[in-house]
Amino acid sequence: MLLLAVGSSRVVINEVMANPAGGAGALQPEDRNEFVELYNPGLVAVDLWNWTIDDGDSRDMLGPWHDPSVLDANPSLLIGSTWLRPGGYAVVLDPEYTAPNPEGGHVRPYPFGDSTLLLTVGNTTIGNGLAVNDPLILASPYGDTSTFGTPFTPEDSIPCNPGDGISWERIRQERPDTVDNWITCLDPFGSTPGAANSILTFTDLSVETLLLTDPARLKPDSSMPVLLRIANAGFTVVSDWALSVFLDRNGNGHPEPSEISRSLVGWPFAPGTDSALDMALTCPQTRTDLWAIVVCPEDWDSTNDSRRVTIDPGGGKRLLSLATSSFSPDGDGFEDELKVVYRLPEYGGRLRIVVFDLGGRAIRTLFDARPGSDQGVVGWDGRDDAGNRLSAAVYAVWLEHRTKASTQTEKLPVVLYR
Questions:
Q1: Residue 77 shares a structural domain with residue 138
Q2: Residue 276: how many CB atoms within 10 A of its CB?
Q3: pLDDT per residue over 244-276, tens digit each?
Q4: What is the pTM of this model?
Q5: Residue 85, Cα to own-chain centre: how many angstroms?
Q6: What is the largest CA-CA distance in the chain?
Q7: Helix (H, G, I), strand (E, B) or coil at 388
Q8: 3: in domain
Q9: 49 lies in some domain
């Protein structure tokens, strides 16, 4: 039963790694790589000597870290002290973090931030060993406290398992310990011990939409209306970015100076906002990919930085079209699914859309029913009807629209990359 009173906190629990990457057991990574990060938001240094950390099962007293071997990777780390400077980070480590005979890999995995104060506890685990559902209470000898996981509100949704090798991070240090003030670490490494939390630096610009607003009227050299939407899915204002929209005439997926139709130098882009851009380009004379690529040096996630659409002049009368002439269902978030678009001359009848291999074998049925509209989109994820991943090759997408009066068929090739 946790009975500590909540007082005004001078130091806050800022990040918790309760589920380190790797196996469990004595001297295994999950045993020795747990940590709790503390942050001092005040204007004066705070001595953490005799402060305690409690996971509800065991209470530990904080003390200085003494093993100098941690300095081999980062000589700026602070050891042998319990004084936390203003605006500084302290990381409470399991005392076995530098054990001489570790097992299971993941040995000393953390790239601590410069000037991080390292602390530890007096026994072999932090608390009774941090479980993913353990709340924490940090307490000073003077009644100052900070919590993680809302220990006094056990019926809410935290703490819970953030995922293997992923930490919980506090969103705002000045805000209380509530469900909406914690987020799983966004950094690709999974944690940020001794450094700014990932939400403070996470930058993610994305091209959300690239589409032709009137594809049925595409004609060579005619005006081609295009709708483009870009978004800031990150948590910081981004100013250093640029956008290129280009017709990829040489098929290399990169904007050459002669191919660029529109370019844009970015403005300060607020987090959580988007911007829609309408533009009129000149339709190419032959089948060509139109690309939109946003370039941002600070972007953490490059998988959503580009989109493309295949322009097929004169193809507006076709029943079948493909959003792109190729796709790569490899799980990287970019073109993992082929968009197959159909436009029927009339509502009703029976519509079949089937993928064939080059041997003429039907390998995936995408649609086989009465269509609910005269136009629509179905997707193909690069698998066969049994759910097996198909190898890289050229495939054929075949459409048949059967009514009482007629039967129409069309077929288009597509390249599947891995």
A1: yes
A2: 11
A3: 999 999 988 899 999 999 999 989 999 889 999
A4: 0.65
A5: 33
A6: 88
A7: coil
A8: no
A9: yes
